[in-house]
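Entries read chain and fold; for instance:
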Amino acid sequence: MKAVRWYGTRDVRLEDVPEPSIQSPTDALLRVTTGAICGTDMHPYHGLLPNFVPGTILGHEFIGVVEQVGNGVQRFKPGDRALATDLVADGTCWYCRRGWHWQCVNRTLFGYGPLFGADVPGGQAQYVRVPFADTVLHHIPDDLQDEQVLFVGDILTTGYVCALNGGIQPGDTVAVVGCGPVGILAQMCARLFGPAQVLGLDMVPNRLQLAERVGSIPIDVREDAAAQVKALTDGRGADVVLECVGTEEPLKQALQVVRPKGTISVVGVHIEEAFPWPGGLAFVNELTLRYGVGDAITYGERIIELIRRKRLDPTVIISHRLPLEAAVHGYELFDKREATKVVLKM
């Protein structure tokens, strides 16, 4: 089968690899029909993850058809359409029983090699072995297409959890730092909670245009972002700030635009050791900081229903649809910020 493998900084290759097979009674074998390149795939692409293993099959956003199941799988059968979550969890440990799957004692992620636990090859491939299938997979309603639910497995749920953790109240002003795929979806999810206005902060013109397209007020951070936000909030700043990038500068921007007694909800994947959190400012302004991870195992069914009810349309972020054979080009587009979201068709 064909699969996308990582070999070093900006070195990904489409190669022939053996097809996976059932290894455990709780496994399912999924024939992938649609996948995607995620912003967090760019961390290894840019060489930012030490000890990333050459030859790792990438990808953790994918959807497909069940081809085979182990004799311990009860919820799925061959022929079922299924969405995979990015997170692999056993569904039975102390943490999983409380809905905290990211803390599962057997946690791992598709497409990251052994960095987060067991090595589970990713979904930028024609076939994927899915461990703990009854927990990790979601059924896809017949009336929804692949692209409508694809992002529930990771970035849409991440945006939803970011908004949820912000504690948005009706009438609030919500500022979203970052108008990449997660940021745009966070803006859409923020509206589910009834804010008066949602602001999208970025510096890339086409991303600011997309923010405006989904109903947000675009804020160009190359100009004085704090002044712009205060001008829209009677001088106070945003009630809730959602940080959806994962680097130091966006977190600093979040601190600049949040009002006293406000909340900053972070889902950007921060991998730096230093943390730009000014303790004095946070104390004086009584700020709340929340971190969260998009647990698609816990929230997936809820979000799929929101899509069915047309409360969310995540397909607006798709800028490119490419065959798997063009995946390397997809990475190049993403790297140059010429793509908002690349979907791969198998």
User: Anything to note?
Assistant: Residues 156-291 form a domain with the Rossmann fold fold (CATH 3.40.50.720).
